[in-house]
Design brief:
Largest sheet: 7 strands, mixed
CATH topology of the largest domain: Aspartate Aminotransferase, domain 2
Distance between the termini: 64 Å
Number of domains: 2
CATH class of the largest domain: Alpha Beta
Strand content: 5-15%
Low-confidence stretches: none
Bound molecules: pyridoxal-5'-phosphate
Helix content: 25-40%
CATH architecture of the largest domain: 3-Layer(aba) Sandwich
Number of helices: 13
Radius of gyration: 21 Å
Strand order of the largest sheet: 1-7-6-5-4-2-3
């Protein structure tokens, strides 16, 4: 019998763990075997094989992830982009149309703008803050609506309740990339989203040592996406599954601490005379603060900001920091700093970036689990180089 647990901290440790424990093992062992002895399976998708996403390491993660967001099912994938592309290529078929939020992670943006036409798919971007305008973009072939819980890198929070209501009214599948808040900050299925996607590379694993992805949501859709993934082949490797499983156990501790630190760093930056603008949904000055407070339990460890001196000042500042690692990606235990125009959003044209408000001088920080005082001291000394 599967045990159920009430609180997310307990689910992170105990949900999905094999019962009885495998040979008594307290932590989930790695099943480093590509195939398993034939057990009389009658359906291709049930044959136990790593690519078919059904090894003990996969199954334990599927149960744990579904439990975290109170969803019917889950699937892990080889990367966040495998989760995104496989999901979209399952819910849409040639001739179908997607409504997507205009400010998206660069890889997703580029998948829509560069690859969609080749699959016979089309899309329209929508302003996540203006639900009145969405109907005009709707087409008879629209099948799904896609957004992010907090946009990368501007940390905007779309009218997510309106997204779910719009999807229900027009019979669309609602899909959300929930990487930034993680299940600690937000659980989309509880708000009516059909599918919640994650780059597990980020907070879920949290240690910057794997790439991985996840799709969480309605069972029937998860089953279809699994079958598509079985064909496309973007399965999670058992070793990555083991590391993800281990990393996830500390998710609540990490993300809550990182969120608190990010809140303090954001307030510190906001008060600094060299800083022009700070994007962090936990700040009262953030245009979507009240919406974020209603939806999220915490605001994540991600923030971005611009300096009054623009691009030149940003480059100086980043060079002058000594604590963060200058690197793309996010959600790990170490603080990372980057200019999205050179990394996560480098694939987007400069015109598109400007239209969305992503300036070349925008600095994005992923706050780690170091002492927040050390992070602020380091930023303070680096900001002195501006004066
Ligand atoms: N979604 C978001 C919000 C991201 O920031 C990223 C990567 O930075 C992805 C998806 C893609 O994830 P992955 O690099 O694991 O494929």
């Amino acid at each position: 019998m599967t045990r159920t647990f009430k609180h997310i901290e307990t689910k992170l440790i105990h949900a999905g763990e094999p019962r009885p424990r495998i040979l008594g093992a307290v932590s989930m062992p790695i099943f480093q075997t590509a195939m398993y002895e034939y057990g009389g399976e009658t359906d291709y998708n049930d044959i136990q094989y790593i690519r078919l996403n059904n090894t003990p390491n996969h199954l334990a993660l599927h149960q744990k992830l579904a439990a975290l967001e109170n969803a019917e099912g889950a699937l892990v994938t080889a990367s966040g982009m495998a989760a995104i592309s496989t999901t979209i290529l399952t819910v849409l078929s040639a001739g179908d149309h997607l409504l997507a939020q205009d400010c998206l992670y660069g890889g997703t943006h580029s998948f829509l703008t560069k690859d969609f036409a080749g699959y016979g798919l089309s899309y329209n971007f929508i302003d996540g803050n203006d639900p009145e305008s969405w109907k005009k973009k709707l087409q008879p072939s629209t099948r799904a609506i896609y957004c992010e819980s907090m946009t990368n890198p501007l940390l905007q929070v779309a009218d997510l309740k309106a997204v779910v209501a719009f999807a229900k009214e027009h019979n669309l599948i609602s899909i959300i990339d929930n990487t930034f808040p993680s299940p600690i900050g937000f659980r989309p299925p509880e708000w009516g989203f059909d599918l919640s996607l994650h780059s597990c590379t980020k907070y879920l694993n949290g240690h910057s040592d794997i790439v991985g992805g996840a799709v969480i949501g309605r069972r029937a859709l998860i089953e279809k996406i699994t079958h598509r993934l079985n064909h496309l082949g973007g399965s999670m490797d058992p070793h990555a599954a083991f590391l993800l499983h281990r990393g996830m156990k500390t998710l609540a501790l990490r993300v809550r601490y990182q969120s608190e630190s990010a809140g303090e760093v954001a307030s510190f930056l906001e008060m600094h005379p060299a800083v022009a603008r700070v994007n962090y949904p936990g700040l009262k000055s953030h245009p979507h603060h009240s919406r974020a407070r209603e939806l999220f339990d915490c605001f994540s460890g991600m923030l971005s900001f611009e300096l009054k001196g623009g691009l030149v000042a940003a480059e100086h500042f980043i060079k002058a920091t000594t604590l963060p690692v200058i690197a793309p990606s996010l959600g790990g235990v170490e603080t990372l700093i980057t200019r999205p125009s050179t990394t996560s959003h480098a694939g987007m044209s400069p015109v598109d970036r400007r239209l969305l408000g992503i300036s070349d001088g925008l600095i994005r920080v992923s706050i780690g689990i170091e002492s927040r005082d050390d992070i602020m001291d380091d930023f303070e000394q680096a900001l002195k180089t501006q004066q």
